[in-house]
Design a protein that fits this description.
The protein is built from 6 helices and 11 strands. It is α+β, with helices and mostly antiparallel strands. Strand 6 and strand 7 form a beta hairpin.
Length: 289
């Protein structure tokens, strides 16, 4: 059964959390306030409509709250959590947009070694030290994209489980290929036994040159279509790789730049124009003056 649902979380109505309520995402970043589920109550949960995006859900709930919605009207500081086939994604409701972020659920198992605070981590068989840069929840389990502290995004990363197990070796982000490898890690295919005797030959011959079934006209069309799709994916990958690196300010990588880079990657995959990043934004502001 496919999972396609979402939940709405709102800040707890308690004095201890008033500094979070109705604050913009950037304000919380500047105050170094972490956005996690300990500060929130779930006020609504529902299925998503077929093909519906989180932005469409947001607009739908802003216009009309369902009768089972237990909180106030949708506003800044609310959080959407989307579950699509076990992939958990969180969105912060900012003043004019939804911001994808990680770390909303901070539950750790007793044997957890990796978190979003992990730095200077040594991976067996890998040189140098590593730092957590992104995390993803798949089927209720956390996975962390580790980046080389020396080479940063110039080198391929490694995905680790909370206990430090290597899940994916050689990746740069949580793309579709990486998520599929995580699913294989969670559900390894059963071992197949070698047959004792050779199967009987059938009357259908297999092409020796291609080592596959003879290609029909429809199959050839599908093959050509796949080639076009691969070219499009290559172009998306090229545009993503051409994005600038986040700035280093006072010895620390700009969190805001990293956020803009994540938003730019999403825009490129969706065929939209990516926002300007870091130094490019500064140049644009100078030109307007």
């Amino acid at each position: 059964m496919r999972i396609n649902q979402f939940a709405v979380y709102q800040v707890k109505e308690e004095p201890a959390y008033r500094h979070i309520q109705f604050s913009s995402y950037e304000e919380l970043l500047q105050k170094k306030v972490r956005i996690n589920s300990d500060s929130y109550n779930q006020v609504y949960i529902s299925r998503m409509l077929p093909g519906e995006t989180m932005e469409q859900v947001h607009e739908r709930l802003r216009k009309k709250r369902p009768k089972t919605f237990q909180g106030h009207s949708i506003s800044t500081s609310d959080v959407y959590v989307m579950n699509q086939d076990g992939i958990i994604t969180s969105y912060y409701v900012d003043k004019e947009r939804l911001i994808n972020f990680t770390g909303f659920f901070q539950r750790h198992t007793s044997d957890a070694l990796i978190s979003m605070d992990t730095v200077g981590y040594v991976i067996e068989g890998k040189g140098g030290t590593w730092v957590s840069c992104e995390n993803l929840i798949v089927e209720g389990k956390k996975f962390f994209l580790m980046q080389s502290e020396r080479y940063g995004s110039d080198a391929e990363g490694v995905v680790l489980a909370e206990d430090g197990s290597v899940v994916v070796d050689g990746c740069r982000e949580f793309d579709e290929k990486t998520v599929n490898q995580i699913r294989i890690f969670l559900h390894p295919p059963p071992e197949t036994k070698k047959p004792d005797a050779k199967p009987e030959e059938t009357s259908v011959k297999i092409s020796e040159e291609e080592n596959c079934w003879p290609i029909s006209e429809n199959a050839e069309e599908a093959h050509n279509k796949k080639t076009v799709e691969e070219q499009q994916m290559d172009e998306i990958e090229r545009r993503i790789n051409s994005l600038p690196e986040p700035r280093t300010i006072n010895g620390r990588v700009s969190v805001l730049d990293r956020l803009h880079i994540i938003q730019a990657k999403r825009a490129i995959r969706e065929g939209k124009k990516p926002p300007r990043i870091g130094a490019e934004q500064k140049v644009k502001r100078k030109k307007k003056q």
